[in-house]
Structures are given as structure tokens and as C-alpha cells.
């Protein structure tokens, strides 16, 4: 192969890589935690765990799932409902305004709440136990349990709607 041919081949390869990078979209996790899965299925084994505010690069998409690459280079599938396109920023005209948020605050905002709204609700409903809600958030369902639930209910690819 001549030197000119190798140069052209290298140039074309670099051009393809540049186009792929420009077309790649950044997605931001909008839920408290989510999994990057081996396959585009809810019961597929997780290969990574992500928290609210973390970003991933979209590689492709398929039936409500995005194939992504994490900042650590892990590739897998994440459901489209767990992420949003683009980056979000907070701009403040006044230096006294808060311009960052914790993962918990982002998760509350995703549900339409903030700390003040949650505190006000708790104060108006003092007799209610919020421990049950906290307990529900700590429940972990294994991939096998989820797969069995979907199969028994004939849900998703096991005979029902997606």
C-alpha cells in the first residue's frame, strides 16, 4: 500500500470517528438511581449503576431503550424513561441563589417536589407514617424476580403490551 493510500485511509477513518462523535447525544439520568443493563430488557443483568445527574453517551436506540456508554467506558442499555436528552444548567442572576442540586433534590424535582413542598406536606399530615414510603424505596427486586413477574403476568415480550 502506498504512502498516499495509507494517508487517505487514515483521513477517512478519522472523519468517520469525528462524525460519530458529533452525532452522539449526551443523556442525563433523571431518576434517583437506574441500571445500565446487558440487554434492552428490564430483567437483564445490570452492568453498571447510575445516579441522578450522571451523564451517558447514546450509541443507538431500540424500542424505548438506549444503548449507552458511561463515563467509565461501560456499554449497555438504559430505558428511555430514566434519562433526558441534553444537559441542564442552572443560571442565577443573584449570587445568593443556589445553583447546584443533590441527587435527592433532583429526584424530588423529577416527581414535581422540592424539600419545602415535602416538608409542608408532612406538616399538614402529621398523623401519617412516611416510614412505609421510605421502606418501599429500599425494596430491591432481583432480575430473576422481575423476569418471573413479567412471565407470570404475560407482560412485555412474554405475551402482552410493551
Briefly, what CATH class of the domain at 24-88?
Answer: Mainly Beta
CATH topology of the domain at 24-88: SH3 type barrels
| Structural Rg | 22 Å
Beta-strand fraction estimate: 15-25%
CATH homology superfamily of the domain at 24-88: SH3 Domains
Distance between the termini: 52 Å
Could you characterize what this model shows?
- This protein has helices at 3-23, 103-110, 115-124, 131-137, 143-152, and strands spanning 25-29, 33-37, 46-51, 55-62, 65-69, 75-79, 83-85.
- By secondary structure, the protein is of the alpha+beta class.
- The chain has a domain at 24-88: Roll (SH3 type barrels).
- A hairpin with an 8-residue loop joins strand 2 (33-37) and strand 3 (46-51).
- It is flat and about 80 Å long.
- The termini are far apart.
Summarize the structure.
By secondary structure, the chain is an alpha+beta fold.
Characteristic key phrases:
SH3 type barrels; 162 residues; two-stranded antiparallel sheet; 35% helix; five-stranded antiparallel β-sheet; alpha+beta
Mind sketching the topology for me?
Layout (H helix, E strand, L loop, with lengths): L2 H21 L1 E5 L3 E5 L8 E6 L3 E8 L2 E5 L5 E5 L3 E3 L17 H8 L4 H10 L6 H7 L5 H10 L10
Antiparallel strand pairs: 1-4, 1-7, 2-3, 4-5, 5-6
Amino acid at each position: 500500500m502506498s504512502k498516499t493510500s495509507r494517508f487517505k485511509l487514515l483521513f477517512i477513518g478519522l472523519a468517520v470517528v469525528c462524525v460519530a462523535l458529533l452525532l452522539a447525544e449526551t443523556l442525563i439520568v433523571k431518576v434517583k438511581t437506574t441500571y445500565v443493563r446487558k440487554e434492552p430488557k428490564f430483567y437483564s443483568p445490570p452492568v453498571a449503576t447510575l445516579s441522578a445527574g450522571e451523564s451517558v453517551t447514546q450509541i443507538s436506540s431500540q424500542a424505548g431503550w438506549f444503548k449507552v456508554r458511561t463515563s467509565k467506558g461501560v456499554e449497555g442499555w438504559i430505558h428511555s424513561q430514566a434519562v433526558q436528552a441534553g444537559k441542564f444548567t442552572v443560571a442565577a442572576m443573584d449570587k445568593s441563589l443556589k445553583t447546584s442540586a443533590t441527587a435527592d433534590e433532583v429526584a424530588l424535582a423529577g416527581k414535581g417536589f422540592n424539600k419545602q413542598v415535602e416538608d409542608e406536606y408532612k406538616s399538614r399530615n402529621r398523623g401519617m407514617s412516611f416510614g412505609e414510603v421510605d421502606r418501599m424505596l429500599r425494596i430491591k427486586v432481583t432480575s430473576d424476580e422481575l423476569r418471573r413477574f413479567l412471565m407470570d403476568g404475560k407482560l412485555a415480550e412474554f405475551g402482552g403490551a410493551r
